[in-house]
Design a protein that fits this description.
With 540 residues, this protein is an alpha+beta fold. The chain is built from 17 helices and 4 strands.
């Protein structure tokens, strides 16, 4: 059997039959809605308007250290102001929510305060000076507070507005100070590091002061110069030896020509010493020191010198010869040349020592250069970073002065919170209208529920649906006097039917009560639910 689909006329007939169920609950609920709309406490809202002003000095000249957007800073400041400690401080200062403070925990009070406080951004279409495009930008924001007392709402709103202004200045100044302090600390670190590197470079120069890369040209020139001096000294020694050999030969020839007392006698030891020296000088240029003839002459010279002694030998030579001026001159030149050779040899030893030293410097220069360049490169890199940090520190100092003198981006109060003259909520006409609509809906719902619970067969269409065929004749309702008697006779039947309907309603009410108790004990306290409902209604 197909389910019956009722039309509008049938629903209207149901409402007509149960008009009392629709009207009485609706009237009662409308009265309740009117009472709620009238009895809900009024809540007043006080608002302060704060303008976001741009930096006065051009950014190209002085750049602020605060780089966050205004809405970000406002959100951060709001979070700071809405902490439990600061909220409870305001509540105690102005004695807010005295009854709630006695009964509830601080978290409940803070939550209530946060619900009553709001920050709303004010946006406008502006032109970006860099790109020239139009965009939405925050130009101001409202700080509001709601309370049942309009004067208290104005006081709290004024307190919050003041804290927003002060916190913004404090935050920007602190950010500028922290930035400068950070840059100064980093600059000091690099300064100490540079000083340490300077000391290392100084110690390195002191340790390798003769092998530094910048001294390499000088060391090479000195090596070349000393080598030239050695060659020159060797040449001078060879010239002097040639001169000594020549003069020794002349001296030997003079001994043969000059008259002497013992001219026919054998040569004296002094003459032998002179001849040995002449031969030694002549052979020294031809042979090395290890040649047998050189060794023999050296032994002979040492033996004659020991026998006669240097001065005695000279005196003997002079004593055995005529004291000719030419002879004395030759002996004097020989002695002078020998002394010059010894002096040149001593100087050559000194030059050789210096040459070895300079050659060592040149050899060490390449290794010293690598370590020295590493130190210098590290020093230059740190110096560049240090100079950059000091330049940024100077900019941070200017930004700090910018913030301390309120020349940067600032919040300006252009409309202080006022005492409101009319409540912000509840919207009583709206609540009443919603109550009327809900009341009528509930009445209609009760009528339909009663029709479903009571049931019965009514109307031509329903009879046709049940029987399966339309009735032959439809007789309209005719009221006669006997209907009263029949009505009296059927009184017990009506009571029975009414009792069955009430039993169903009782079961429905009991089920509703059980559900409410379950919610109360296992989900949420009904008092809290009722409080939240009232809060939602009061916000309308």
């Amino acid at each position: 059997m197909e389910e019956e689909v009722k039309g509008i006329s049938e629903y209207l007939e149901i409402l007509k039959r149960h008009k009392k169920i629709v009207i009485y609950p609706a009237i009662f609920l409308i009265l309740v809605s009117a009472a709620v709309a009238l009895l809900l406490p009024a809540t007043y809202k006080s608002t302060g308007l704060i303008l976001i002003e741009a930096q006065e000095i051009p950014i190209d000249l002085v750049r602020s250290t605060v780089t966050s957007y205004a809405d970000q800073r406002i959100a951060v400041i709001k979070q700071k102001l809405m902490t439990t400690s600061r909220v409870m401080g305001i509540v105690k200062k102005y004695h807010l929510y005295p009854e709630t403070v006695k009964k509830s925990a601080p978290s409940v009070i803070v939550g209530l305060f946060r619900q009553n406080m709001s920050v709303d951004m004010v946006q406008a279409n502006v032109t970006d000076p860099r790109s020239g495009r139009s965009k939405r930008a925050n130009i101001a924001f409202n700080v509001s507070f709601m309370d049942e007392d309009p004067v208290m709402a104005q006081k709290i709103a004024n307190e919050l507005t003041t804290q927003f202004l002060n916190e913004n200045v404090k935050t920007r100044t602190a950010r500028a100070n922290e930035t400068r302090a950070f840059l100064k600390e980093e600059g000091d670190k690099f300064q100490r590091k540079i000083q340490s590197l300077e000391k290392k470079i100084a110690d390195f120069k002191e340790e390798f002061n003769d092998s530094l890369p910048e001294l390499l040209p000088y060391n090479l020139s000195m090596v070349e110069k000393l080598q030239e001096q050695l060659v020159t000294g060797q040449n001078n020694i060879m010239v002097l030896k040639d001169q000594i050999m020549t003069m020794s030969l002349e001296l030997a020839n003079l001994d043969a020509l000059l008259p002497s007392v013992g001219s026919q006698q054998a040569a004296s030891p002094a003459q032998q010493l002179s001849q040995a020296k002449a031969q030694y000088a002549a052979l020294q240029d031809k042979y090395s020191e290890s040649h047998p003839d050189i060794k023999r002459l050296k032994r002979q010279i040492k033996s004659l010198e020991k026998q006669l002694g240097t001065n005695a030998a000279k005196k003997t030579v002079v004593g055995t010869r005529y004291k000719s001026p030419l002879l004395l001159k030759i002996n004097s030149k020989i002695d002078s040349s020998e002394r010059e050779i010894k002096r040149i040899q001593v100087r050559r030893k000194i030059i050789n020592g210096k040459l070895n030293e300079f050659e060592k410097r040149v050899a060490e220069t390449h290794q010293v250069k690598r370590a020295y360049e590493d130190l210098v490169r590290d020093y230059q890199n740190n110096l560049a970073k240090y100079q950059e940090l000091r330049a940024k520190e100077l900019q941070a100092e200017l930004a700090q002065n910018l913030e301390s003198e309120n020349k940067g981006e600032s919040f300006t109060l252009i409309e202080p919170p006022l005492v409101p003259n009319k409540p912000e909520k509840p919207n009583r006409p709206k609540i009443f209208l919603m109550g009327v609509v809900a009341s009528i809906g509930i009445g209609v719902g009760l009528a339909l529920l009663f029709e479903i619970l009571v049931g019965g067969v009514r109307g031509y269409n329903e009879l046709t649906r049940i029987v399966g065929a339309p009735p032959l004749v439809v007789v309209p309702l005719i009221t006669v006097k006997s209907d009263g008697v029949n009505a009296t006779q059927s009184w017990y039947v009506k009571i029975y039917k009414a009792q069955s309907v009430y039993v169903k309603l009782y079961w429905l009410a009991g089920l509703i009560i059980i559900v409410m108790l379950g919610v109360h004990f296992f989900v949420m306290d009904l008092e809290i639910i009722w409080f939240k409902v009232l809060r939602k209604i009061s916000m309308l």
